[in-house]
Design brief:
The complex is a heterodimer of chains A (80) and B (148). Chain A has 80 residues and is α+β, with helices and mostly antiparallel strands. Chain A has a single domain (12-74), classed as 434 Repressor (Amino-terminal Domain). Chain A contains five helices and three strands, in the order E-E-H-H-H-H-H-E. In chain A, strand 1 and strand 2 form a beta hairpin. Chain B has 148 residues and is mostly helical. Chain B has one domain. In chain B, helix 1 packs antiparallel against helix 2 (39-61), helix 1 runs antiparallel to helix 4 (115-140) and helix 3 runs antiparallel to helix 4 (115-140). The radius of gyration of chain B is 20 Å and the shape is flat. Chain A binds chain B through residues 29-31, 34-35, 38-43, 45-46, 48-49, 51-52, 54-55, 57-58, and chain B through 1-5, 64-65, 67-69, 71-75, 139, 141-145, 147-148.
Chain lengths: 80, 148
């Protein structure tokens, strides 16, 4: 999960549902999603694994591929 | 493996090869004082370049998908971080290159001027190695490759 921590702030994480959405969209492969979003497959792998938080532009592009609002793909939540 | 990773691997192999060849030639000619005589001794270097060159070129240009992009925002970020690491290493290496001879030959000692370009090229190769390793390490931390 991509983590962010401000001063005196609780640790927060950006989670995503890309894997689930890929499977719901005719078992789309990572390569197909990467081609549609205009990035490399490695970037999709890193985002799915939560190792990389994408830019706003890329996040919107990914959401557009799945025809979902951005909050349907990415969630920003406090760690328990 | 994307284009940035491939390019970095190619530079890593090239830098390692250059360092290996330089060390070998230095030992062969300067230390052992054994200049190349036979055909294989004289031409092994061009042969290695002729064999490795096309292999590395094909490896670099072969795409993983016909619509594969050259690089994206994550690649740029990784390259930027690696450039920062190598920039810092340039200063550390330059400092070491000026201080180490001081300790070896002493305050009043001197080193031949012809060594200076070799030191610069050596630093360049080491910085290229550091840059390549920094890029590959960051890709290695990006999650398990090959997952569907």
């Amino acid at each position: 999960m991509a983590k962010s921590k401000g001063s005196g702030e609780r640790s927060r994480t950006v989670t995503n549902r890309i894997r689930r959405l890929r499977f719901e969209n005719d078992e789309m492969t990572q390569q197909q999603l990467a081609d549609a979003a205009g990035v490399t497959r490695q970037t999709i792998i890193a985002i799915e694994a939560g190792k990389y938080a994408p830019s706003l532009t890329l996040a919107f592009k990914i959401a557009q591929v799945f025809s979902t609002p951005i909050e349907g793909v990415f969630q920003y939540e406090a760690e328990p | 493996m994307n284009k940035t990773q491939k390019g970095t691997l190619v530079s890593l192999v090239s830098a390692l090869l250059c360092i290996a060849i330089a060390v070998f030639l230095l030992v062969e000619i300067v230390v052992l004082k054994h200049p190349p005589e036979s055909f294989s001794e004289k031409f092994w270097l061009p042969i290695v370049v002729c064999v490795l060159g096309p292999i590395l070129t094909i490896f670099y240009w072969k795409k993983q998908s016909p619509t594969e992009v050259e690089s994206d925002e994550r690649d740029d970020l990784i390259k930027k971080r690696a450039a920062l690491v190598s920039f810092v290493s340039v200063w550390i290496l330059l400092y070491a290159a000026t201080v180490i001879p001081w300790f070896i030959v002493g305050l009043e000692g001197s080193i031949p001027v012809f060594l200076l370009p070799f030191i610069n090229v050596g630093i360049l190769l080491v910085v290229l190695l550091i840059y390549s390793v920094a890029v590959l390490v960051q890709y290695g931390r990006g999650g398990k490759d090959g997952k569907k």
